[in-house]
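Per reviewer request, we include the raw input and output of the structure prediction for the construct analysed in the revised manuscript.
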Amino acid sequence: MFSRPSSASSHSGAFVHLRRLFPYLKPYRGRFALGLVTALLAGFSNPVLLAVVQGVASLVLKGYVHLGNKQEWWSKITAKFPEIHEHPAWYAKVDALLSSLEQLRDTVTAWVPALQSGTGEWRTLGAVVALCLLIPCFVFLKGALDFLANCQFAWVEQRLSLDLRRKVFAKIMGRSLEFFNKQHASELIQTAFSMTSTSANTAMTFAQDIIRHPVSVVSTLTYLLVRDYQFMLCSVGLFPLFMLPAILLRKRARRMGRQEQELNSRITGIMMESLAGIRVVKSHAREPYEVERFTRTAQEVNGLAFKIYRTIEMVGPMVETSASFGIAGGLVYCWVRGVSFDTFIMQVGALVLLYPSVRALTRLQLVLQRCATSSIEVFRMLDERPEVQDAPGALAIDRAQGAIRMENVTYTYRPGAAPAVKGLSLNFEPGKFYALVGESGAGKSTIIALLLRFYDPNQGRILLDGKDLREIQQD
């Protein structure tokens, strides 16, 4: 059996092995890059949506949007950051930026004079309806970006999973019989099929979430910073409270992830044993026993899967409760500061849009902990060297005369066990027929396996036409 990673190393090992997955993305880098771009745009969509809603609300309710001017903007900046006068380089950069924004404002208001007219005379029912329809249009655009990003990453995930399965299966088929004598077939199936799929899913989830959600959080916080930096600082202060549930549940999720892999391997083994020995099962009327054994293990798998699901989903209500404290505190803050109701609603809306990204980031490390074992086992399988290998510069031969000689050959199947053959020397001449006769366990099958180079001798050597088998290519 494969050795299991220690709890101390599995968290860092997950990132190490996930990083090793990304070279496998090279054939699909176009689709992967498109997924990253759409995920990045989806992350930026939150503050854009907030700005659109705020602008539409101001136009509909007030009849105009107060965009301000360069002098007003400078007054707000110097009020928040008075030390900017002490840094000429930064002062010049901000001044140039504000000049550009003022030019953009003039261009926009020249195109749509109603933005700053202050009269509101343009507000007819048709104009208001058309303006309000901008909100669902931008919501649809945000959803479309999420959909496109998910589709691109799902496409890449399927191809990555197929490539990993093919490589792992090819690696398994290249191992010697010594490996299969020590390894359960159910574990090999679990690694080649389930763990490769989980590894690919983890890589895509990580790549998507690490781009989309941090961008969404940073851009939304930037919007809050521009609107009210003190409210933004209070919001950021709540982030450690959001992260606390994930930190508390991390070790539990990692432990249950390992148990889940072990139980899945066991239930696969039970099915294989029952089906491979179906004649014996039926001849002894053992069907009820096999069904009971399978059911018992399946119940353990289902129970553990539900515990894992419950652990991951537990983060949501805990984060929501923490967020509700933030909203309550924000309401108190707005009362103390004398913030208007519409401004408060917009700030709460920003926090609501911020919440899914914060929740996804808190759940991300729980998903990584659960999936760490999969990527580690996949690459352990890919990294292990076959027990029987061609020597450097091994000869490729098309035909052989057939002269075989075994010189003082000893082979033991397991360390510490009695040798299957010991000090054996035999000579087989070409063109003749030989029979190996002896009682069970005398070593007949071992001799044939050594001649076919299923194993290499522990001592001695086997010659084909005077050449050591280890110096001839296995093919």
